[in-house]
Write a structure and sequence with these properties.
- By secondary structure, this protein is an alpha/beta fold.
- The chain contains 10 helices and 6 strands; from the N terminus they run E-H-H-H-H-H-E-H-E-H-H-E-H-E-E-H.
- A 6-stranded parallel β-sheet has the order 3-2-1-4-5-6, sandwiched between helices.
- It is globular and about 55 Å long.
């Protein structure tokens, strides 16, 4: 095999985060007495959330603050009298129970069992552990590296330093990172000097000039690379 160690992103790489997010938001809005909340506020929420996740990647906000700030801004925008801390906590609880593997994720990881597989994610620790642990991939990964626990997030060098130290990696040429985010997964991998695989199932246009080592549109395509 060309690569001995595969570092996987989680959200929208191995698990369908869009579906998980939508379901968890709906259940949370219902619990807070807003049964049409998803339809009414999802577009605004996604815009706010996307902006804050970009800030996180740039080190401008911490993950715990992001978890509350996105709802504070949403409720302020729509003049809703809801406690953002409580809403955020309930939302993360529901999110951790939403387990929707991407098509081919289980089969591909099974076929890559000859490699050392690990997770490297910017997500919330409790949510990611719950989703991975409750899925068919629960016993698949050697390590699960989560930014909230480590104190660094992709694309920062620190999260890769930590992962490489724990995995005792000495040869970067044997490592491949696989993820859907150009600014997080691919930028992080390029900065660290490892090969990158951009998972792009929706054929998004690469507008930022980064050049991943590989680009795939189905997870099964990874098998031809490795």
């Amino acid at each position: 095999m060309k690569y001995e160690i595969i570092l996987f992103d989680v959200d929208d790489t191995l698990f369908d985060f869009s579906k998980s997010e939508k379901n968890a938001l709906h259940k949370t809005f219902v619990e807070f007495g807003l049964p049409t909340g998803l339809a009414d506020y999802e577009a605004t929420y996604k815009e706010i959330s996307m902006m804050l996740w970009r800030d996180l990647e740039q080190g401008l906000i911490t993950l715990p603050k992001l978890g509350v700030e996105r709802f504070k801004r949403l409720f302020l925008t729509h003049e809703l009298e809801i406690n953002a801390d409580k809403f955020g906590s309930v939302y993360l609880g529901y999110l951790g129970k939403e387990i929707h593997p991407i098509k081919g994720a289980v089969e591909v990881c099974d076929k890559l069992s000859g490699c050392r597989l690990s997770i490297i994610t910017n997500g919330f620790k409790d949510v990611q552990i719950s989703r991975i642990g409750g899925s068919p991939l629960s016993n698949t990964f050697e390590h699960i590296f989560i930014s909230e626990e480590i104190g660094f997030q992709k694309p920062e060098k620190g999260i890769f330093d930590y992962a490489f130290s724990k995995l005792q990696i000495t040869d970067k040429e044997k490592v491949l990172i696989v993820g859907d985010s150009l600014t997080s997964d691919i930028q992080g991998g390029i900065n660290y000097g490892i090969d990158t695989c951009w998972f792009n199932p929706h054929f998004k246009e690469n507008k930022i000039g980064l050049k991943p080592t590989y680009e795939i549109h189905e997870l099964a395509d990874l098998l031809n690379i490795v």
